[in-house]
Amino acid sequence: MSRRKIIIDTDPGQDDAVAILLALASPELDVLGVTAVAGNVPLPLTERNARIVCELAERPDVKVFAGCDAPLERALVTAEHVHGKTGLDGPQLPDPVMPLEAQHAVDFIIETVRAEPNDAVTLCPLGPLTNIATAFQRAPDIIEKVAEIVLMGGAYFQVGNITPAAEFNIYVDPKAADIVFKSGIDIVVMGLDVTHKALTTRPRVEAFRNLGTEPGRMVAEWTDFFERFDKEKYGSAGAPLHDPCVIAYLLKPELFTGRHINVEIETQSELTMGMTVADWWGVTDRAPNAMFIGDIDADGFFALLTERIARL
Ligand code: RIB
Ligand code: CA
Question: Contact, 7 vs 253, CB < 8 A?
């Protein structure tokens, strides 16, 4: 089996952590590296959390890099109110032992894409797009080499979760998102429209806990913690499990449906800053630049996720 080469760019965050576990449990994927970015919590915590998750998966061999500690132009906005002070609040976790790579994450992304053949590497951003955009600014030659970008971010019918108009990952660094969405690379957008249909209902969380494994217990306890915020906010039966949708798409794209449409990023108005303006109804002549995912087979998604976490 030829394994799909990916770089996971992430701001763990409990949902990022579950996405990383899913990727490391899936032999179809070759995780070339995990690059941390400031987002849910500041960079020293996101890089630490990424190492904790790799060790939980018993994969201290995975290379973890620290990237950008602030957005391109704006001050960092974090989300401790959702993810807790550490970014992985919920279960008690040991300090990581595996080292952080000395190389900057952006240099790793550039070097890796340059070293691989064209269309060999898929970028999987799960947080603000600062590392990705910085890599494209520093090394425009890699843009045509990237196979695809499958990212968690944005929203249209579900509107915003950090402002009335914007989803968190895009809101934190709208300039970076604008660079990525205008790059010309094939992009798959896992926005709130689809992730809000991937809810951690009690039976789904208990299925993780009932695996009887440390990773299964961690996923259940992370979910117990971070779902409190969204369940209260949306009155929903569980919290949206955002970031694992990106990895699940790589493994079973048939679980998802969407439209190839134009998506542009608001970078001027403070009122709608970071909004993903998705031409879902094709009312403009703007060229399509993204596969905007709108629906998911949620039972199939959680069955895949549970089966794979059970392998760790
Ligand atoms: O809006 C949800 C996104 O913001 C997720 O990626 C979550 O981890 C946070 O980064
Ligand atoms: Ca994230």
Answer: no
